[in-house]
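User: Hey, my collaborator sent me this sequence without any context and asked if I could get a structure. I don't really work with proteins. Can you help?
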Amino acid sequence: MTTAPHHLASVFVELAGGGGQGPPGVPTLLKRLTDRSKELLAVRATAVTFSTGARDAPRVAASDADVRRLETDAVTWGEGPGPACRRTGRPLGGTALSGAVARQRWPRYAPRALALGCTHTAALPIRGHSGPVGALVLLATRRTALTGDLMALGQSLADFAAVTLLREHEVEASRTLAAQLEHALTTRVVIEQAKGALTARHDLSPDAAFTVLRGYARSHQRLLTDVAREVVEGRLDPK
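Assistant: No problem. I've predicted the 3D structure and written it out in structure-token form, which is a compact way to encode the shape of the chain:
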């Protein structure tokens, strides 16, 4: 396995989100990792799973659609090289899919992978700050030996991509939090405006005005925010 240094460098730049393409986002970066690792490692297919917490649904990407479906099912089953690698946080060396070990450990995964023309598999951890956050799965045919050098390059790709993945995940989380805070603020503002409108119209206290708003929303099975907005716009008087 020989790769021109300039091509290898360009792949790492791409995984870092460079090259003038702008921030890649997690889905794009996962797809880049699978495509470039398949190319550089010359394997039949690759797949990657990524999630930063136990409550987060793992994101799955693969170099082709059939493998993506297989790896998505593997996550659901909790079996296969990807889930095994994610659990231990350690590389899983080349394993024959037709062997007794694979068939015993992965009774659903191994036959599916064999049906896709793969004979061997390996997996490499994607490491986060405090533990594994995913795995890079390699699926190979007999033509490609899953050697130590190949595994080392694959781990380098996974380690490098992990930095960008975690960065992009944090950016996404920040955007989501900002949107939630903005929505909460907007909701609070319109409710306060509606309370003020009812206070002025009917000589109510702010607490009494809120009770009126809430009671109307509940009795009509409507969102409090929608009721408040109509009050502010003069289209509704719940009193």
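In plain terms: The first strand starts at residue 45 and ends at 50. You can pass these tokens on to your collaborator as they are.
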